[in-house]
Each structure stands twice: as structure tokens, then as C-alpha cells.
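Lab notebook: predicted structure, single chain.

Context: the supervisor wants predicted structures on file for every construct in the current expression panel, including those that have not yet been purified. This is the next one on the list. No modifications to the sequence; it matches the entry in the shared construct table.
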Amino acid sequence: MNKGRVWVEINTDSIRKNIQTIKQKVEGRDVMAVLKANAYGLGVKEISKILESEGVSRFGVANLDEALEIREESELPIQILGGVLEEEIKLAIQKDIILPIGSIDIAKRISQIAKNLEKDAKCHILVDTGMGRLGLVYDEEKVIEEIKEILKIPNIYIEGIYTHYSIANVPTNSHTKNQLKRFKKVLKKFPKTFDIIHTANSDAINNFPDTYFDMVRTGINLYGVFDLEGRRAYSLEPAISLKSRVIDIRKLKKDSPIGYGCEYTLKEDSLVATVCAGYADGIPLAYGNKGEVLIDGKRFPVIGRVSMDYIAVDLGMDFEIEKEDDVIFIGKSGRYEITVEDMARIKKTHPYEIICSITPRVKRVYIS
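Prediction complete. Output recorded below exactly as produced.
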């Protein structure tokens, strides 16, 4: 296999095991696989096929372009989760994409376009119970009246209703419980009105079992990755490894400067490996003088500033490392492992950003 300079290995067996574990955890509820941003950059066409074969009930996306890419591969229901632009509505209806309704105005616009197409648009109502971003803003009396009005609008089939939690990764925080309480107050006014009720995202699946309802939505957990905070209520297999190669090794003397800005000087004579990966591949700038890599089952520190295409690694006097050896940024080597979460901690961000930051020039390799 021509691995190239930088590649991300996606273990399809691990993804299959993870989705089955999630299905067992939610005890028979339907599972929506959230494949926004090209399945978080891992390849939506390939990932969607795997998940469909493992029995997910539908796919969730951020916009119409993402929905259409999956539609080329699958006849499963596909749902836009956040907001919808007016220019997206017509084609979405034509392609049987499920649309979100977050206001009466957008509901009326969807209705008019659906009427012109002589179709009924399938939609879910989004209630903003405390995210503060999209959806019918929660005001107990007002939101009830808005939903009643939406339900009367023609050429719209309201299949479901949902909300989105803003801090479900922290099980001790009361905000999620308050959001759920608000949502339940809405539901009490509409018994047996909706075919599908869903609120739980990956964090809520882990931390708040009472949020499951009819269906759950999972994204990052598919790849065995968790938020940095919160419980890990079940065991998942890491499915992602990010790798590169040693392109050069040189012996440099004590006090030699390393990289742009001369931000590091060697503490002693060392073998320094140049690795052909940089921030243009998704390696965080924060890795300079802080991160580590694995080579041949050993840990080595990243030294100097991360550049666009290269990083430097201090090998000490380990003469066993050779040119073109594999370098692991995320994954296992021997008894050591570096996780997505580990990289996120160094960057002081969350794991979602780490995965989505793996750039298009990084080769995607699917293994089993």
C-alpha cells in the first residue's frame, strides 16, 4: 500500500462494534448516525455504507450538500438538523430530505414550496430549550401556540420533534435537566402527536439515560471518541489512527536551534528526526515543544515549532529509528497509546475539532 506522507487509518471493524455497543446501550431505540462535515472528515460515503449495514435508522447532517452526498449512496431517511436556507428547500423536498422547522416563517415557506411541487415536506420541529442558537425559543405559552399553528400548515408532515443539549457532557450540571424538563412540558401538550421524539446526542447518551425517548443521535462516539468531561458509560473502541513517516534523521550538537523562530535549542547532542507532517495536515501548533509521537513502540517529544509540512522529534541517541519508519500521532505502538482526547488536551480544545482538523491532503485508509 502506498501510504504517502500522512494518512489516517479508519478501522471499520471498530466502527461496527461501536454502533452495536451504542444500540445495546440505548435499549432498542432507533439510532441516528450524525455524519456532519463529511463524517467529521473521515469520508461520509464510506462511513454511511458501514453504518447502514449495521442497522442505523437514519442519518443526520448539517446542510443540504451533505444530505445529497449521502442520498447518492442510501435510501435511508436523511435529516438536516440545524437550520435550513430558503435556497435549499426545493431540492431537499424533491430528494425527500427531512427538514428542520425552527420558526413559523420557515414552516410557511416550506409549505409554499411543497405546495408548488405538489408534495408534502417531511419535517421535524426544533425547540430551543436552552441552546440559544436555533429553533422555537422556549416560552411555555408562546411555544405551545407556535407548534399548534405549525401543525395546521398544509403540505407539511410533521414527523417528529426534538431539542439539542448544550452541556450534556457534564453530568453534574443542572442545565441539561432543565432543558429536558422544558421539553417534557411541551410534549405534555401534544400527546401522540409526533412519530419520533429525540433529544439525546453522544454526550447525553453517556450521561443522561432519561433523554433517550424514541431515537438517539450519535456522532463522535461512532469513532470511539468521548468528550473530555463527563462519564464514559460504556466501552468503545478507538477507530482512528493518524500517522506519518520519518523523512530524515540528523545528528545535531547541543545548543542547535530547531525550527522557525528558534523556539527550541537542543539540551545535548541528539539525533533529530524530521517527520513529514505539519499543521497543514492537522497537527496542532500547540504540539510544538509539548506534544509527543510514537515510533517503534517508544515515545519521543516534538521539539521546536510545528511548521506547515514538518515537525522535528528528539530521538536522543536511539540509533534504531530509521528513515521512513512510521510515526504515530494518534494510535497505538507497543505498550503506548496517544488518543484523540490526548491531542485535544494539549491543544486545549475538544476532540471534535481534532478530528475535523485532519485536512483533505491526508490520505484516508480504511482497514478492518
